[in-house]
């Protein structure tokens, strides 16, 4: 391409201050350096993690910044040492990575790459610590190594999943974060058997992904637990068969579920980040074989407390990160699930906006109206 090795000027939605609307700016995007690729983003979507760090609640603020980490695009150019990607490849940038060389990448059991695991505080690239974005010479910070709220972005090649070029990027872009986190938590970690019961705590995008995984696995009962009753009707589309609102019961939720299921569910998946929900999710699984999986990220001072007898009675507690999916190895397979009509994505997409109206996506999420809002970059 004629832009190879050149600075590209393009539009980006820049967050100049915490909680303030993003501003459409012309940014300069430098060429990719060693082990990096430059991607033309065609579609991106808004995840709650973007909103959380944009609000800058409970973490060190880093501004100005270009957010965004769920997206689909086409490789424009590659930097030195990149051999598995080339211009024209259809790709999903991922907020975590797979270097291929560390003990985690060599392990079949882990996806927590030593080099490229999620880092919310890094504002530059790993190679040299510098940003590839600038406005009038002033650097603009990266976010999660992806920064997809820009028409072009630079990403470490280990954070780029090459996918089937026939896959529609306006649908499969949502595979690159929340949906896969929930789906994998059920399919690859909880592993319910056909006919078993599954409880899902939290019916946001990640929880609905977990419910979809339970449905794909053939669960006979999928119990959704959420404090927002407005979510219950929508969740039926994802296979949820029964609902529990903790506010409507005098008994602890774990007891309510145990009473509903003759002793407890076979599997549970917690997708809220509430430590109380984590304890409930563990204590609601059946003794002898029950497995609970924690997905939500707790507050830093939280402590998980339960009686040791819950473990001795043969309940299992697991944690997972990004559904235990390795970005480059496994995410192309999740896309193929969609292409083979095993996985539905359309029902996760509730809104679509042009890039120029990206702030509407924030409004939809803050009002609790959207599951996923697709942002069309060319519009």
From TrEMBL:
GO terms for molecular function: alcohol dehydrogenase (NAD+) activity; S-(hydroxymethyl)glutathione dehydrogenase [NAD(P)+] activity; zinc ion binding. One of its GO terms (biological process) is formaldehyde catabolic process. It is an enzyme of class 1 (oxidoreductase). Homodimer. Its EC number is 1.1.1.1. Residues 205-337 form the Alcohol dehydrogenase-like C-terminal domain. Its main location: cytoplasm. Its cofactor is Zn(2+). This is alcohol dehydrogenase. GO terms for cellular component: cytosol. Residues 34-164 form the Alcohol dehydrogenase-like N-terminal domain. It is found in: Cytoplasm. The lineage of its organism: Eukaryota, Viridiplantae, Streptophyta, Embryophyta, Tracheophyta. Keywords: Cytoplasm, Metal-binding, NAD, Oxidoreductase, Zinc. It comes from Barbarea vulgaris. Belongs to the zinc-containing alcohol dehydrogenase family. Coiled coil: none annotated.
């Amino acid at each position: 391409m004629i832009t190879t090795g050149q600075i590209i000027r393009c539009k980006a939605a820049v967050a100049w201050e915490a909680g303030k609307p993003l501003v459409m700016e012309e940014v300069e995007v430098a060429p990719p350096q060693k082990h990096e690729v430059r991607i033309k983003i065609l579609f991106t979507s808004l995840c709650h993690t973007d909103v959380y760090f944009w609000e800058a609640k409970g973490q060190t603020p880093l501004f100005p910044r270009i957010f965004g980490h769920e997206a689909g695009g086409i490789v424009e150019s590659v930097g030195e040492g990149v051999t598995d990607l080339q211009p024209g490849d259809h790709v999903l940038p991922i907020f975590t990575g797979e270097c291929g060389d560390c003990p985690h990448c060599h392990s079949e059991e882990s996806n927590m790459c030593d080099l490229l695991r999620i880092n919310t505080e890094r504002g530059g690239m790993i190679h040299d610590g510098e940003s590839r974005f600038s406005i009038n010479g002033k650097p603009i910070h990266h976010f999660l190594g992806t920064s997809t709220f820009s028409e072009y972005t630079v990403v470490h090649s280990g954070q780029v999943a090459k996918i089937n070029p026939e896959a529609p990027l306006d649908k499969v872009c949502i595979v690159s974060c929340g949906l896969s986190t929930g789906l994998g938590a059920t399919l690859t970690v909880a592993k319910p058997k056909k006919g078993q019961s599954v409880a899902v705590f939290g019916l946001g995008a990640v929880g609905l992904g977990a419910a979809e995984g339970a449905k794909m696995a053939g669960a006979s009962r999928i119990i959704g637990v959420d404090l927002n009753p407005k979510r219950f009707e929508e969740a039926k589309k994802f296979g949820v068969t029964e609902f529990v609102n903790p506010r409507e019961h005098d008994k602890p939720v774990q007891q309510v579920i145990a009473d509903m299921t003759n002793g407890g569910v076979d599997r549970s998946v917690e997708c809220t980040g509430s430590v109380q929900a984590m304890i409930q999710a563990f204590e609601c699984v059946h003794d002898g074989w029950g497995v609970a999986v924690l997905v939500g990220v707790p507050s830093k001072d939280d402590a998980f407390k339960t009686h040791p007898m819950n473990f001795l009675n043969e309940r299992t507690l697991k944690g997972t990160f990004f559904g235990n999916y390795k970005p480059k190895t496994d995410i192309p397979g999740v896309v193929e699930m969609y292409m083979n009509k095993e996985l539905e994505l359309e029902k996760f997409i509730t809104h679509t906006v042009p890039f120029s109206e990206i702030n509407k996506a924030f409004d939809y999420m803050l009002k609790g109206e959207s599951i996923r809002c697709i942002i069309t970059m060319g519009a």
